[in-house]
Amino acid sequence: RRLDLFAGTGALGLEALSRGAGSTVFVERSPVAVKQLRSNIDLLGADGASVVAGDAREYLRSASESFDIVFLDPPFAADILGETCRLLAETDCLADGALGIGINAGYAPGCGQKEYFALAELAAERNVATFTHVRYASNMEPRSSFQAVQELIANAAITGAHMHLCHINSTSLR
Which of 42, 64, 72, 117 is 20 to 30 Å from the Cα of 124, by its Cα? Predict the structure, then answer.
């Protein structure tokens, strides 16, 4: 089972379903995004998809299910990633033996180093990997892809988390 928090149009969870995930719960509070998400699910004929129209943090507080993979992609302008990580740690939403936590730092420019580190700590605590799209998409210093990989390695070294680098952003050599 997969959980796609702050699902938006569902890209992360729909990709998981297209690659054989048994089921995915999409949680999104924006009525416009929920409408588009449901349309995308219908268009793709995505079996195993269920949509919760509501706040991701409220969902975590009341959820009775646990998940093997949790995708976190909160709005980058909101300072809610830390609270979401805390809720994941305090609830039973992340299943024992879960596969990992998806981190899309490369697509969330507002994700701070403390939030990124908190995700690494949560992954280490639960003994799950992270699947990370690193931040920064450039070969120019500062804020180069090289620095982004260093940040991932540092978080892994400090916390003991197993952090998988999905890819260096495709525009990193521009």
Answer: 64
pTM for the model stands at 0.70
Contact 129, 163 (CB under 8 A): yes
86 contact partners, CB below 8 Å, separation of at least 6? 118
Tens of pLDDT, residues 128-167? 888 887 777 777 888 888 888 899 899 999 999 999 887 6
Strand 24-28 relative to strand 129-133: parallel, antiparallel, unpaired?
unpaired
Q: How many CA atoms lie within 13 A of 137 on its CB side?
A: 12
Token pair belonging to 162: 């197993």
β-sheet bridge partners, residue 5: 27, 72
Are 74 and 81 a contacting pair, CB within 8 Å?
Answer: yes
Say how many C-beta atoms besides its own lie within 10 A of residue 140's C-beta. Answer: 10
**3-class state of residue 68 by DSSP:** coil
Tens digits of residue pLDDT in 24-68: 999 999 999 999 999 999 999 999 999 999 999 999 999 888 888
**161 is written with which tokens?**
């988390």
Neighbours of 63 (CB within 10 A): 17
Please report the pLDDT score of residue 131 as a whole number.
83
Total residues found in the chain within this entry: 174
